[in-house]
UniProtKB/TrEMBL annotation:
Listed SUPFAM superfamilies: PLC-like phosphodiesterases (SSF51695)
One of the Pfam families matching this protein, by short name: PI-PLC-Y
Origin organism lineage: Eukaryota, Metazoa, Ecdysozoa, Nematoda, Chromadorea
InterPro entries: PI-PLC_fam, PLC-like_Pdiesterase_TIM-brl, PLipase_C_Pinositol-sp_Y
Domain of life, per lineage: Eukaryota
Domain PI-PLC Y-box span(s) in chain numbering: 2-51
Full protein name: PI-PLC Y-box domain-containing protein
Amino acid sequence: MRIDPSNFNPIQYWAFGMQMVALNFQIPDIPLAINTAMFQQTRNCGFMLKPRSHWDVSDPLYQRFNPLSKDNESSCALLLSLDVGLLCLATKIFCPFHSSSTFL
């Protein structure tokens, strides 16, 4: 049972094809940043193809896949690459006009 407002890691849910993960958007932490990055990788549509074991009949794990299983044989790996952008804003406002008025 969870009693704190922290967010859980959404990567395991994205890896299993679940995009609707309930996160607390009032807590700006790493799991929320990961979830936002996963949406941005898909151009904010949130669609990711489910793992092959969910939809391919020829996959050996088809209908045997259990995301809650601790068995390493049935686990899926997720390769995550993030592009990080940095936006810098100036802390001073430079006025091109030299006036003594407080209104620009």
